[in-house]
Amino acid sequence: MRLGSVVRRASVGLLVAVGCLVAVAPVGAADLWTQTGQSFTSVNYWQGVTFDPGARSFYFDGPAEGIWRTDASLTQTAGRGTGIPTAVTSARGWNHLGDLTFDADRNMLLVPLECYYPGLSDPNTCHTGGVGVIDPSTLAWRYFVRFSGIAKAMWVEESPDGKRLWTSSGTDLLAYDASQLTAANATIAPTKHLVAILPASGVSGATFVGGRLYLAFDRGSYEQVQSAAVDPTTGDIVKPWRTEIQRSKSFGLYETEGLAGAPALGGTLHWQIQPEIPLYTRILHFTQ
Questions:
Q1: Where in the sequence is the domain holding 143, given as residue range(s)?
Q2: Which ranges of the chain have pLDDT less than 70?
Q3: Are strands 187-188 and 141-147 parallel, antiparallel or unpaired?
Q4: pLDDT score for 268
Q5: Which of 96, 173, 83, 164 lies closest to 129, judged by CA?
């Protein structure tokens, strides 16, 4: 979610390596997934990840607001270093993106929007969140829709049926009507607000796998992925939450970011856990 001073000194074009390496972090005691490998790639791909199964393309954002597309083997096919138009930042303050999602039904890339100005007593200067709509072919900005009910959007994830767009605030989960994500709607209200339903705050990313909502959490000394079933009719979360994967912040695994479900890179679930010194992006790959 945040880049340290090292990245501000480093070139955003740095590419350390692409591909799966043999070094694999130790498995957590409660893991329900098997780690099959990890990939190291551009620091530009820092903030989040999603996948278009039709085109077999990954989409990333970062280090703060760039938009990037790769093929299924992480070879870059397109990119924009500035994903948020200057006019939008000037008017709304948004200058930072989080874990994004792909809307296959409407052919839209959806990026969460927040303000982050480090060095200020309150880095979230705007206290509003929203979603930017990006053309997946050109990576060009289309428009934004503001979310009421949250102070910032750090991740968004569309439900498998394409009806809801989920995000969180603290330990609350909120869902917005995906059909309302049109240029005519400047602000939309949540259709669901599930209070204190999360096992912890600090969600960095999300994806759906097999009818379950998977969330990545920062839990202090370790990072964790938990999941819960989602009622296919009502869209409600069916507790309890279940721990899927856990990793200590040792072994260079420091900052959790995005999640993506995708049959690629030797896995079906992909989790960004970034290094403490942010000179590259790390993606761990898992299968069940």
A1: 5-287
A2: 1-30
A3: parallel
A4: 98
A5: 96
The reported pTM is: 0.92
State the Cα torsion 20-62-160-210 to the nearest 10°.
30
Burial class of 29 by CB neighbour count within 10 A (0 to 12, 13 to 18, 19+) = exposed
CATH number of the domain at 166, please. 2.115.10
Between strands 192-194 and 203-209, the pairing is unpaired
Give the DSSP H/E element, type plus range, for residue 35. strand 34-41
Token reading at 185: 């709607």
Question: Do 215 and 222 meet the contact criterion of CB atoms below 8 Å apart?
Answer: no
The pair of structure tokens assigned to 90 is: 């000037």
pLDDT at residue number 7: 41
| Integer Cα distance of 127 and 151 in angstroms | 4
CA-CA distances (angstroms) from residue 93 to 48, 89, 129, 133? 20, 4, 10, 17
Q: Report the pLDDT value the prediction gives residue 275, as an integer from 0 to 100.
A: 94
* Number of compact structural domains in the chain: 1
CB neighbour list of residue 270: distance below 8 Å, 6 or more residues apart:
49, 51, 259, 260, 261, 262, 264, 283, 284, 285, 286
Burial class (CB in 10 A: 0-12, 13-18, 19+), 160: middle
Beta bridge partners of 36: none
Q: What is the mean pLDDT of the chain?
A: 91
